Amino acid sequence: MTSLQSKLMRLYVRYIASKSDPDRSVLDQRAKLEKDAEGIVRMPRGVSVRSLQAGNVAAEWLEPDAARKGTTILYLHGGSYIVGSPRTHRGLAGSIALAGRSPALVVDYRLAPENPFPAALDDTLSAYAWLREQRFAPEHIVIGGDSAGGGLTIAAAVALRERGISLPAALFCLSPWTDLTGSGETIRTRAAADPWLKASEMPAEAKKYSGQNAPDHPLISPLFADLRGLPPTLIHVGDDEILLSDSTRLEEKMRAAGVDVTLEIWPGMWHVWHAFAPYLPEARRAIERIGAFILKHT
């Protein structure tokens, strides 16, 4: 049963989504998200923030006071590959870092349409290489992200495997966008229930990122990738989101490929409900689950 807080938060989320304007310029969309995040995002106590360059990639380093030595999270923010930044996702990434007792490197990867695929993927791989240069061993690194960042998490792991680079200890994906072709059935069946995402806006967003490439390219839509050999993976998705089938099909393909994968479908939850952890008990419980997963695998 969902909480009273979740029912109230759902109304708030639906209200915010109703104010979105797909015709607004990308620059205006980014500015609006940054402004909205200022009023919503709350960094948890006991986590410090430091801006840095992870090689040639801008990033933020979020470090809990009680962080374990030698472990880290490479965090990839969501935003349809066209908006979002470490600043908009500090609260979420910081809460996960605190739960996993590990510092998080939140990557400010380049955004589309100015920088379409493979810019975000290249920046992610560069950040991973930088962590290795800082003497973080692969078995002590976890890669994770939300929405587009969740899809990018899987794509990065596939790219690392293809290049013969040692894989991280584990992956976690929160409401991942894994199919930019929009072929999942819940794009239609969850349209009325989803208070946040609009299916009508997603093809244009997918085109901005895929650019001249086909949207079913396996490193753009990792649902269509060869997933063999990937590390243990935790997937969280809400039962009321149009991207539900992006997660259920990913879990099916990973399991068929022999990957140790755990899919948790949260009743009554919407896209990346984790971001509302300061106000939502379901979000706090979900982050506790992610923290336990990180602790288990590092």
Provide keyphrases for this structure.
298 residues, alpha/beta, eight-stranded mixed beta sheet, 9 helices, globular
Short description:
By secondary structure, the chain is α/β, with parallel strands linked by helices. It has helices at 4-18, 26-40, 90-99, 119-133, 148-162, 186-189, 202-210, 244-256, 281-297; strands spanning 47-54, 57-64, 72-76, 104-107, 141-146, 170-174, 233-238, 261-266.
- Oligomeric composition of the shown chains: single chain
Measured between the Cα atoms of the first and last residue, the distance is: 32 Å
The 3D shape can be described as globular
The H-and-E topology, N to C, reads as: HHEEEHEHEHEHHEHEH
Rg of Cα set = 17 Å
Mean pLDDT: 95
- pLDDT < 50 stretches: none
What order do the strands of the largest sheet run in, or round the barrel if closed? 1-2-4-3-5-6-7-8
Number of strands: 8
Largest β-sheet summary: 8 strands, mixed
The chain-level structural class is alpha/beta
Helix content bin: 25-40%
Helical segment count: 9
Strand content: 15-25%
